[in-house]
Amino acid sequence: MSVAAARAHAAARSFSRVENFFLSHRAQMAERPAVADFTFGDPRDMALPGLVAALRARAEPRSVDWFAYKANEPEACAFLADVLAAELELPYEPEDIALTRGAFGAIRLAFTLLLEPGDECVSPLPGWFCYGAMLAAVGATEVPAPLAPPRFDLDPEAIAAAITPRTRIVIVNTPHNPTGRIYSRADLSALAALLEAKSAEIGRRIWILSDEPYRRVRFDGAGFTSPAAVYPHTLVDYSYGKILLAPGLRLGYLAISPLLPAAEREELRRIRFAAQMADGWNVPDAPLIYALPDLEPLGIDIAALARRRERMLDALAGWGYAMTRPEGTFYLWGRAPGGDAAAFAGRLREHGVHVMPGTLFDRPEDFRLCLTATDAMVEAALPAFREAARAEAEHG
Hints:
By secondary structure, the chain is an alpha/beta fold.
């Protein structure tokens, strides 16, 4: 007889590939330093000086209640409402914002607010590999909907086919991890029209969870439209861990679209904090809340990411790799030589170069690499990519 709950086992099954990869990768790094690590979006340089200064300043108590219990602090929520109103051109108000422990916390809060056991959530394929485990933990089911190649556009037919009477949420991740695709206003408006029709057809409202942690990591002056601007029944999650390249600092928020009908908007506002408490006091630590105005203007060097993107794309194209040109995010996504990403990752690993095989994204023929590696790592790794392509050409 199992000791753990069935939902815990379901979450563990969903997460097992990622867990095994993560733990194995850590062990490999401890045993043998890498020439280049392109796996996770971790920092490879020291933290932004402004980030360190802000944390140091805000960690110093200025009152006896400096480290008292925190909630959706009015000043912080008002600040974020102004930021979102300017950035997304929507009339956000402080009560629309819930401060969370990163995007993980925001996604969890969205699931707590919207999902009943047995509900279904449509997610992109390929897509972030933690949705399924998080859904299983609340008794819901992930239903993948393939994105349309070669650019990995939203595919209305695939999304429509994935929707059933149990569908409650459709996840839109823009800019998209792992492909870097940014969806246009026209793409999102078409999705909004589909979800309006499907909501009427199944007799229950389908929501969008707009997963936007890479919203500020965009290339070539690319614009951005949030689904919250075209579909009122949208919740937006965001994390500062990406733009600050500090995923270990759990600071984010969940935002209700201000276009939501007033009665529904007020209901979510009214229960947001109770849901956060039920999720384990899902609120950032006090110094991070105080530091929000200091952190908001900071960001990693997007131009440096863009240069690495061009360097890698040019070199890999010259050796026959089929790569997707990202419009945003940290990542490059492409087809492994020979179509076996696990074998390809193993060959690179022999040279001290680590990439993420597409098996973690249910795309075993593809791979992802992360541009947060340093320029020196990129240059040191390129010979291994060239050798892997040459070996496949000779023996494939």
